Amino acid sequence: MRAVILSGAGRYADPWHPYPETSARLAELAAGAGYDVDLRDDVDAALASLGDEVRLLVVNAGDPDGPGADNGDREASAAGRASAAAAPTVDPVALDAALERGIGILVMHSGASSLRDYAAFDRAIGGRWEHDVSWHPPFGEAHVHLVGNHPVREGLEDFVLEDERYSGLVLHDVIEPIGEHEEDGIRHPIIWAREIGRSRLVYDALGHDRRSYDSAGHRSLLANALEWLSRVPAPSRADQPIPQSGGAA
């Protein structure tokens, strides 16, 4: 099985997330799950050349339009984007084809604000970080409450880790919740799964930095997610329509 990990760089980088560090941890987990891993920081080029042999796509990248996945300093983010190389032409065809044939997609943390030029991804993920709506409290102790009976949470218990707690993510389609956190008496979904035609997707809002991947509970959840995502194409939902990009968003 081949996996491609998209690691935030260039227009997909931001001042807050150490993508090389967290992508390396994700590569270790994917390799441990039996994948032959290709770690790419040329995000648009990697998507344009996504081959039929790729079974898993991991999105660990930031917002190409800024100010990034966090409520940070807009001027600092703008300066970072201005210094990055010019964005290559977006070509959604290979990603559309991958969703058509069946691929597993794992989207981590700030990936909820990434790949905004890819309409098929936008529809597939089921929810987004939206500027001026989504937010998070200060980095700190996060209590993850597991819910439902999805295979990704099978055999796992609630866990605590050091991480950012994304809140107010805007859902635009049906999701199957797996994990939530509570803030000001409100439960916010931070881990969910979806099946889109023959493809499967897991979104995990955890993973701000290496401390998140030091959590045994989080690593166990990711191991379950990688196993579930490996079982594609998903024949049980093969008759569902898939999101079509119709070109760049």
Protein architecture, described:
With 249 residues, this protein is of the alpha/beta class. The chain has one domain (2-237): Rossmann fold. 26% of the residues lie in helices and 26% in strands. The protein contains seven helices and eleven strands. The strands form two sheets. Strands 2-1-3-4-11-10-9-6-7 form a nine-stranded mixed sheet. The protein has a two-stranded antiparallel sheet with strand order 5-8. It is globular and about 45 Å long. The two termini are 30 Å apart. The relative contact order is 0.18. Residues 68-85 and 245-249 have low confidence and may be disordered.
List the helices and strands and how they pair.
Elements: E1 2-7, H1 19-32, E2 36-40, H2 43-48, E3 54-60, H3 74-83, H4 93-101, E4 104-108, H5 119-125, E5 127-128, E6 140-146, E7 159-163, E8 170-171, E9 176-183, E10 186-196, E11 199-204, H6 210-213, H7 216-229
Parallel strand pairs: 1-2, 1-3, 3-4, 4-11
Antiparallel strand pairs: 5-8, 6-7, 6-9, 9-10, 10-11
